[in-house]
Design goal:
Helix 2 crosses helix 4. The strands form 3 sheets. Strands 10-11-9-12-13-14 form a 6-stranded mixed β-sheet, with helices on both faces. The protein has 5 helices and 14 strands. The protein has 2 domains: 151 residues, GTP1/OBG domain (Spo0b-associated Gtp-binding Protein, Chain: A); 171 residues, Rossmann fold, CATH 3.40.50. It is an alpha/beta fold and 368 residues long.
């Protein structure tokens, strides 16, 4: 099965126009000399971020993208017209990799952010550049250079603050439906989610965050089983993971075993992802007698030796969902503050280093 979050395309920038070999020919000017103009620059291929896109599905049908060639130069020292750049719009979170070089060229993370992935060729030189006192009628020109060509792999990683994890039918889609305007498919059977879903959770004025729901994982996911593993990469950018645990599983599976299985799959897939902050969220509390959900959650955490953040919710009745989102908002704001402070400290350290280097240069090379 092919997924719309990955695509392979070929980009070819335009060739530069050739330089012109021309001589000035006018009445009463018998020896006008060379006047061949330069060729125009070839168009480049540029990726541009577009917040209105959310898949790479458009690249399934069109995979070759060519920018316009530059026009050749003309007489009277007139340069050829440059080729137009080819702009390709991609969703935010697109990682661009050069397949042949096996190198990541960059990531498109902001709206209208531009990334040149294939640079157009330079225009060639006309013969006017080669005239001299000993060569008054040069015929030499320089052809335009070829534009860059690359095979690219595009991979879209969802930009979300919070990611939902869990086995199939753990209640992830129900939760994102209860706390946001997203409306993923919800049913009383597993594997209803086949692609990532995004929702915006609004807590108050200027207080909101993006939450992502990916297809449920199954045992052996890290080895390629099921669909969820295809989308775990989307959670790489999240700041916080909510691990949903079904308190009333249809198959009667022990919640403790479920948590340990998913933790093992995460560690096997990516240690960095497994080490992300992760809360246990016990879902479907409405299916148990009143008070039993909290008691069962306590037993599960005791057996796991879990001491982190947790919550008991019911997406069907709304029990605990609002409080959970408010707690998440507080943590995200604190993480944002810590990241801003870290960036400021790094900038100050870099500035101090540059000042020290400048002072050192002055002491060595300055005037006595």
């Amino acid at each position: 099965m092919k997924f719309v979050d990955e695509a392979t395309i070929r980009v070819e920038a335009g060739k530069g126009g050739d330089g012109s070999s021309s001589f000035r020919r006018e009445k009463y000017v018998p020896f006008g000399g060379p006047d061949g103009g330069d060729g125009g620059r070839g168009g480049s291929v540029i990726l541009v971020g577009d917040s209105g896109l959310n898949t790479l599905v458009d690249f399934r049908h069109k995979r070759l993208f060519r920018a316009q060639k530059g026009e050749p130069g003309h007489g009277r020292q007139m340069a050829g017209k440059s080729g137009e750049d080819l702009v390709i719009r991609v969703p935010l979170g697109t990682v661009v990799t050069d397949i042949e070089a096996e190198a990541v060229l960059g990531e498109v993370t902001d709206h209208e952010q531009k990334m040149v992935v294939a640079k157009g060729g330079q225009g060639g030189l006309g013969n006017v550049h080669f005239k001299s006192s000993t060569n008054r009628a040069p015929k030499k020109t320089v052809p335009g250079s070829q534009g860059e060509a690359r095979d690219l792999h595009l991979e879209m990683k969802v930009l979300a603050d919070v990611g939902l994890l869990g086995f199939p039918n753990a209640g992830k889609s129900s939760l994102i439906s209860a706390v946001s305007a997203a409306r993923p498919k919800v049913a009383d059977y597993p594997f209803t989610t086949l692609h990532p879903n995004l929702g915006v959770v609004s807590i108050g004025v200027d207080q909101n965050f993006v939450i992502a729901d990916i297809p449920g994982l199954i045992e052996g996911a890290a080895d390629g089983a099921g669909l969820g593993i295809q989308f775990l990469k989307h959670l790489a950018r999240t700041r916080l993971l909510l691990h949903l645990v079904d308190l009333a599983p249809m198959d009667g599976k022990d919640p403790v075993a479920s948590v340990r299985e998913l933790e093992a799959e995460l560690a096997k897939y990516d240690e960095a992802l497994a080490d992300k902050p992760r809360w246990l969220v016990f879902s479907k509390a409405d299916l148990l007698p009143e008070g039993d959900a909290e008691d069962l959650a306590g037993v599960v955490m005791e057996e796991l030796g879990y001491e982190g953040e947790w919550a008991v919710i019911s997406s069907a009745t709304g029990h605990g969902t609002r409080e959970l989102m408010q707690r998440v908002m507080v943590v995200l704001e604190q993480i944002a503050e810590d990241e801003a402070q870290a960036r400021a400290e790094a900038a100050m350290a870099e500035e101090a280093t540059e000042e020290d280097e400048a002072a050192f240069d002055d002491s060595i090379f300055g005037d006595d």
